[in-house]
Amino acid sequence: MIPAVVYAIPAFVLLVVVEALSYRFLPDDDERGYELRDTATSMSMGAGSQVVAMPWKAVTIVLYSALFAGAPWHLSPSSAWTWVLLFFGDDLAYYAFHRAHHRVRVLWASHVVHHSSLRFNLSTALRQSWTPMTGLPFWLPLALLGIPPWMILLQQAFSLVYQFFLHTERVDKLWRPVEWFFNTPSHHRVHHGSNNVYLDRNYGGILIVWDRLFGTFEPEGERVVYGLTKNIGTYNPVRVAFHEFAAVWHDVRAARRWRDRAGYLVGPPGWAPRADG
Q1: For residues 166 and 187, what is the distance between their CA atoms, to the nearest angstrom?
Q2: Is residue 251 classed as helix, strand or coil in its secondary structure?
Q3: 207, β-bridge pairs
Q4: Which H, E and C letters describe 185-228, residue by residue?
Q5: pLDDT by residue (tens digit) across 92-101?
């Protein structure tokens, strides 16, 4: 089975080219635009993620199918209410996945890839992890609810396609009701900011209402500084993919107590033992 998002890849690449040309002919001093090495790295990360995704998708389908088979009821794809439940369930699952991957360091080691660029453009959307395994548990409840696995995978693909268009500086704030309910480029610029006020904010996928409900929303105000609080300074795709896993392993090995080792694994990024023990 070919993941639905694969069919969108040619359009993604074309739109990256169009956006890059827009910076060439309509530059904006307030926007960072494109840099060849950065874009090449993002494209390489995207290509690698798709190579990994192919076999992993098969594992995912097997697990979804097993849970779906054991569900107490099976919801009908012909019912509009099943699709409504799926839309909100998938988006809430994405919020939980996204928030956990910012607050648990071993999960952040996978997700940090997406935040490693100092620029914010459509190519940044393609800078994806090579370790998608960490996301699986967050969508398993949907299969247990009796939603067919193919529907879950299709909605995940729709969400990823939507989120591709959030990665741009070329779109200003939208109509206020849209900004209130939906994730927008403005909200997602905040999410990619390394400014203190923007850290760990705006986790939403398609909707921004979860952030408003759970207290993680922050509107775009001061100019966004993209990248990490400690940038990695490399365009090497392998280092981009695994640098934080290496850092976690170094800290765990150096720790003297088991509780400190656990803290380095499941504590938030930047966690360290207190000096007084």
Answers
A1: 8
A2: helix
A3: 182
A4: HHHHHHHCECCHHHCCCCCCCCECHHHHHHCCCCCCCCCCCECC
A5: 999 999 999 9
C-alpha 82: how far from chain center = 25
Q: How many CB atoms lie within 10 A of CB 160?
A: 17
**pLDDT for 77-127, tens place per residue?**
999 999 999 999 999 999 999 999 999 999 999 999 999 999 999 999 999
Listed residue (269, 274, 270, 273) closest to 106, CA to CA: 269
Cβ atoms of residues 179 and 104 within 8 Å: no
Q: Are 120 and 169 in contact (CB under 8 A)?
A: yes
Tokens 């190519």 found at? 123
DSSP codes, 110-152: HHGGGG--SS-SGGGGG---S-GGGGGGGGHHHHHTT--HHHH
Task: Report pLDDT digits (tens) over 192-203.
Answer: 999 999 999 999
φ, ψ for residue 168 (rounded to 5)? -155, 145
What is this structure's pTM? 0.95
| Nearest C-alpha neighbor of 228 from the set 199, 255, 257, 188 | 199
